[in-house]
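Section 5: illustrative case.
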């Protein structure tokens, strides 16, 4: 195996580990917000409301909602990636698993630190899985798809979606509180910080010099010291999606 191939394989392995670690941590951090009981992130309010209505676990509700949102990509002509599909299942399973391990919490002295921990870990998880560059989450893809189709700004589209999600979830019995406001204020800066920390360098592409068409005895011009033009790294997905 060549050195370039080995580096490429290592790079891919790191991306995969980062993707699934981020998605699992996202589900676990969302579960901590549930246990804190001081308000959930926007999509969490909807998931909890639907769970209260149907009696299904909140993790399974998250999977179902993610799958439904993913179906909405079809008319929007969005193309999912490995991270998109994995997002639907891993986050919900990790959430239910964490809820099974972490019981109910009593007292603000415990619930407030758990809320803060959940928000920080959620920002870390966002940075991990987005920096892996395997595609945005279903909910982020819905946002970018509507932005492209309607021509409205990302800010307006995202705000409209999350307001609708929060109101619907609250009416269904979802938890809306100080934690929801704190999450809204903190998640952007946290995600940006952890994106910088976990950003992966683009793998170096092997450069093959073209064979000279000249025959024997013809002078060969040396390549330019500047080398080939740099290849732009694929853009990262947009944040938060599984919100």
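Designed sequence:
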């Amino acid at each position: 195996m060549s050195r370039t191939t080995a580096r490429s394989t290592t790079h891919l392995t790191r991306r995969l580990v980062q993707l699934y670690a981020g998605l699992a941590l996202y589900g676990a951090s969302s579960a901590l917000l549930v246990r804190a009981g001081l308000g959930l992130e926007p999509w969490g309010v909807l998931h909890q409301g639907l769970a209260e209505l149907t009696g299904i676990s909140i993790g399974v509700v998250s999977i179902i909602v993610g799958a439904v949102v993913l179906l909405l990509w079809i008319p929007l002509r969005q193309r999912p990636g490995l991270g998109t599909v994995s997002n639907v299942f891993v986050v919900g399973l990790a959430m239910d698993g964490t809820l099974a391990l972490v019981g109910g919490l009593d007292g603000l002295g415990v619930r407030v630190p758990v809320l803060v921990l959940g928000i920080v870990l959620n920002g870390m998880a966002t940075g991990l899985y987005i920096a892996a560059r395997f595609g945005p989450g279903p909910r982020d893809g819905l946002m970018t798809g509507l932005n492209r189709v309607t021509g409205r700004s990302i800010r307006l589209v995202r705000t409209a979606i999350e307001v609708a999600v929060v109101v619907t979830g609250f009416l269904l019995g979802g938890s809306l509180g100080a934690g929801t406001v704190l999450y809204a204020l903190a998640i952007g800066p946290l995600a940006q910080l952890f994106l910088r920390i976990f950003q992966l360098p683009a793998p170096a592409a092997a450069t093959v010099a073209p064979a000279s068409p000249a025959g024997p005895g013809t002078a060969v011009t040396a390549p330019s010291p500047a080398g080939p033009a740099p290849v732009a790294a694929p853009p990262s997905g947009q944040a938060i999606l599984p919100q």
